[in-house]
Amino acid sequence: MGTILGPRPPVDESREPILRAPPIVTWLILAFVAVHVVSAFLPDEQYTYLITTFALTPERFAMYGLGGAGSFSDTAMAFVPFLTYGFLHGDFVHLTFNVLWFLIFATAVARRVGTARFLALSLISALGAAIVHLAFHWGSPVPVIGASGAVSGLMGAAFRFIFIDPDPATTPVWPPRRLPLTSRPVLLASAVWVVLNVVLGLTGFAPGGFGHAIAWEAHIGGFFTGLLIFPPFDRQRSWIS
User: Fold this and answer.
1) Omega into 58 within 30° of 0, i.e. cis?
2) Which of the residues 89, 94, 133, 219 is marked catalytic?
3) Cβ contacts of residue 167 below 8 Å, gap of 6+?
4) For the chain, how many helices (H) and strands (E)?
């Protein structure tokens, strides 16, 4: 016998496991892993081409992107790394750290804003991270890779709603209200994140044995991009900030 199904009841996200990721988050993680696995098996010459073409290299962008050197295709290709550098990782440890970090904050933000807004917010955060890195390392021949700039932006966005509202007069609601930038939890968490990145960047200590310098300026650039631009992307718009 057939069964007549009525409309599905709304999902209470407050009872959903925090790491039950939306499909878009899962697909992006699979993309990170697939790109890294393929790149790990490339011959040295092809791997060098991959990094030269798709990693974000300040020297290359200064020369071809804004410097006007080369052909039209050289100029166009100089802008491609703004999108692709986040899909490349230095080694398996680097990939694993970024995937776990991404899983936590991307899941929270994607649930909050929906797939389309999540993708736009991630892209803008990656761009913000890249621009800040270029500003600090203009003309450097050292390429930067990794999803951490975009993930920092998602973390900044998540800082606007994952903390308990410090206002005792506010009635708790679900989803949580968006906190203003000047709220104590947002300011404190942001200060800790900035100090941590500056210390790691200046000391050169890379957790997990990455073997590579941390692009701490990109982390901070991505973080503040996500922190500041989150309100227009938020579907919970009753809280003005």
Assistant:
1) no
2) 219
3) none
4) 10, 0
Annotated catalytic residue within 122, 125, 148, 190: 148
Architecture of domain 20-233: Up-down Bundle (1.20)
Angle of helix 23-40 versus helix 115-136 axis, rounded to 10: 50
* Token representation of residue 215: 């692009």
Active site residue 148: yes
- The model's pLDDT over 101-150, given as tens digits with 9 standing for 90+, comes to 999 999 999 999 999 999 999 999 999 999 999 999 999 999 999 999 99
137 belongs to the catalytic site: no
Give pLDDT tens digits for 62-105.
988 876 676 778 888 999 999 999 999 999 999 999 999 999 99
Residue ranges per domain, the chain? 20-233
